[in-house]
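Could someone model magnesium ion with this protein?
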Amino acid sequence: MQNEKTATTAPEGALLKVENLSVSYGHINALKSVSIEVFLGEIVVLIGANGAGKTTLLSSILGITPSQSGTISFDGQRIDKEPVDKIVRKGVCLVPEGRGVFASMTVMDNLLLGAHHNLKNKDKYLKRVFEWFPILEQRKNQVAKTLSGGERQMLAIGRALMSEPKLILVDEPSLGLAPIVVNEIFTILQMLNKEGYTILLSEQNTFKALKVAHRGYVLETGKVTLSGTAQQLLNDPGVKAAYLGA
Ligand SMILES: Nc1ncnc2c1ncn2[C@@H]1O[C@H](COP(=O)(O)OP(=O)(O)OP(=O)(O)O)[C@@H](O)[C@H]1O
Ligand SMILES: [Mg+2]
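Reply:
Sure, complex below.
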């Protein structure tokens, strides 16, 4: 899986640049001056234990969670004070933790929701999503709650793709899935990356995530404590001890 990791760094700068971002929930400082960059064509992974701030960072990028200070830029433009729908229109989407599909709606309706601001291109994107995930076409009239965990994750990713994104934020895609399905989901993310999508994901399945990622950041209680290429992080004694069970 790893040998084809050939992301090219955009010479003009990062696709996503988060600088000194701080986010609090009341007196809880969930992010403390976090800075990360994601370049066009990369898969970047956020590694961190429960409560480290991974979901907070992803939801701040999409504009769901407001920040106290710091900046977020996408494609060279500040987005940190923009509303969510505008950020989605610029090309950022989120596959939320726990999938976030609408359980009592059909697969098709869930997918169409993902295209709600982009209805003129919905047929084109639906066709592509069904090419990537033929199982979703077979299940298109089924309500989402009857899907398996892996199929639901595919639906969540498919719905995100319906918004015509450049950057896909994926929050803990492997959560609650059997190992074989986890491999399948990571293979899908790699395939999407090869198709040109840039991906920022959070994961506690550190080893598998680093095997597909180009670079990563370690988050600990709201701070970035380490960053590097996937290989550097896989070889790091601290990462090995804390996250790789070695
Ligand atoms: N809506 C909220 N209100 C209050 N505190 C919150 C809220 N959401 C998150 N927090 C707190 O912010 C911190 C970071 O949480 P966050 O969900 O971002 O972590 P995480 O790395 O995604 O964890 P997990 O791996 O368990 O999903 C935690 O201390 C959490 O309790
Ligand atoms: Mg989380």
